[in-house]
Amino acid sequence: MKRSIVLFVLLSAFVVGVCMVNAACGASLSRTESDDVLDGIQKKIELAMNNCFVQNTAAPLDSLFTKLNKLEDGNGMVPYWKAYITYYKSVFYLKLGKKEDSGKVIKEASAILNDIGNKTSETYALLALVQSFSIQFASGMEAGRISAGIRENAGKALDCLLYTSPSPRDISGSR
Questions:
Q1: What is the pTM of this model?
Q2: What is the DSSP letter of 136?
Q3: Of 28, 47, 144, 164, most Cβ neighbours within 10 A?
Q4: pLDDT for the residue 173
Q5: Positions in the chain whose pLDDT score sits under 50
Q6: Which stretches of the chain are assigned E, i.e. beta strand?
Q7: Alpha carbon distance 89, 48 (integer Å)
Q8: pLDDT number for residue 153
Q9: How many Cα atoms occupy the beta-carbon half-sphere of 116 within 13 Å?
Q10: Is the dihedral of CA 26, 31, 37, 38 positive or negative?
């Protein structure tokens, strides 16, 4: 009985703490919405993902995706971050037990990344990650094809990293 009470108190304290952190983070996110959408985008995506779980909806990620859709992009950063958001959305759906939605969304992330013309090491690495996640929705020959793609894209990520300069992180400064 004591063990149950202690666990309940600890769990309650954790939930209250998470809610307070998310409320504070949500407030800081709304203050920076008028700033350049790409400025600090990775942190914004991670906060949106946390808010998805708090609100039990993918709306925070969808909102960031919509903002990115309005941007013009000459260097491939917007599609990269759209794919990153879409990957997180797929993870969110899987955590909710919506396997069919998760599988559909991860295919969208892969399509976004495949459409990027001049891929960087980070683009190839994200594509390999997305493919790794998507393999759970495949079977038979498709799983083998995806596995080969993962190996190929991971290799290309390393090749780009070793034989080209500079990375998007160096150019954009937005991560």
A1: 0.72
A2: G
A3: 47
A4: 47
A5: 1-35, 167-175
A6: none
A7: 10
A8: 93
A9: 25
A10: negative
Q: Which two tokens stand for residue 117?
A: 């013309």
N- to C-terminal Cα separation, the chain: 48
Residue type, 112: I
Put residue 135 in one of left, alpha, beta given phi > 0 → left and psi -120 to 50 → alpha: alpha
**Cα 109 to Cα 11: distance, rounded to the nearest angstrom:** 35
- Rounded CA gap, 133 and 165, in Å? 28
φ and ψ at residue 127, rounded to 5 degrees: -60, -40
Report how far residue 135's alpha carbon sits from residue 146's, in angstroms, rounded to the nearest whole number: 6
| Per-residue pLDDT at 4 | 37
Which residue in 164, 161, 162, 136 sits closest to 150, CA to CA? 136
Give me the pLDDT at residue 72, please: 76
Kindly give, in sequence order, each residue whose CB lies less than 8 Å from that of residue 5, ignoring residues fewer than 6 positions away: none
- What residue type is 60 in one-letter code? P
